[in-house]
Specification:
CATH architecture: Beta Barrel
Oligomer: single chain
CATH class: Mainly Beta
Helix content: under 10%
Shape: globular
Strand order of the largest sheet: 1-4-5-6-7-8-9-10-11-12-13-14
Number of helices: 1
Number of strands: 14
Structural class: mainly beta
Number of domains: 1
Order of helices and strands: EEEEEEEEEEEEEHE
């Protein structure tokens, strides 16, 4: 039994979103869905988390939910820098085909405002080929309740699976009260993403209500 002093605590979150967009592509076929997650962290930075969302794909492969199981470490590297390294397992129970896959991720953050994320997998998107994803992002506070967030991502994929593609997103976030936030996000992708994810990539707007506990 691990003593209570060894753990920093348990955090959770819940979201209602008009569209689950991940790396530029809708995972819910443009429909609203509910998402929730819980994270257990130790005082030394080690953590484990589970996050889930409704999904819907075309053509229909039977998947109705996604669960991301994560184990990793996160902590400060100095006064301004922080690092998070984790292993993420993407699970799609009930799918008619094998969609499960695993990715190694690392995120370097500076002054809690700028970040660089890199993820790599030998079975990216469960497509049977290696892939590497990178995202560069920035956060701009606008007073106590408002902030802007922008990110640009690039996915390097094996040509047998699909062409490399770019996507970008810009969010306006309003902290309404306490842990409650409203988020409006504009997404866009290049034509390579549109070819890889027909009907689910391209320009779209997502609205979400989120709370943490």
């Amino acid at each position: 039994m691990v003593s209570g002093a060894a753990w920093a605590g348990v955090d959770g979150n819940a979201t209602l979103t008009s569209d689950y967009v991940w790396r530029g592509s809708s995972q819910s076929d443009g429909d609203p869905t509910v998402q929730a997650g819980v994270k257990l962290a130790s005082e030394r930075g080690w953590y484990a988390s589970v996050w889930g969302s409704g999904v819907s794909f075309k053509p229909d492969n039977g998947a109705r939910s996604e669960f991301d199981v994560v184990a990793g470490w996160g902590g400060a590297l100095g006064e301004d820098w922080a690092l998070d390294v984790n292993l993420t397992r993407y699970l799609y129970p009930g799918s008619d085909v094998d969609l499960d896959w695993t990715e190694l991720n690392g995120t370097l953050t500076w002054q809690q405002r700028y970040w660089l994320q890199v993820g790599t997998a030998d079975n990216a998107l469960a497509g049977g080929h290696a892939g590497t994803y990178a995202q560069l992002g920035a956060r701009l506070p606008l007073g106590e309740q408002w902030r802007l967030e922008a990110a640009l991502g690039h996915y390097w994929l094996a040509s047998a699976q699909g062409d490399d593609y770019l996507h970008g997103q810009l969010s306006a976030i309003w902290t309404v009260h306490g842990p409650w936030e409203l988020r409006l996000t504009a997404h866009d992708t290049d034509n390579a993403a549109r070819r890889l994810f027909p009907g689910n990539a391209g320009s779209r707007v997502e609205f979400a209500v989120q709370t943490s506990f």
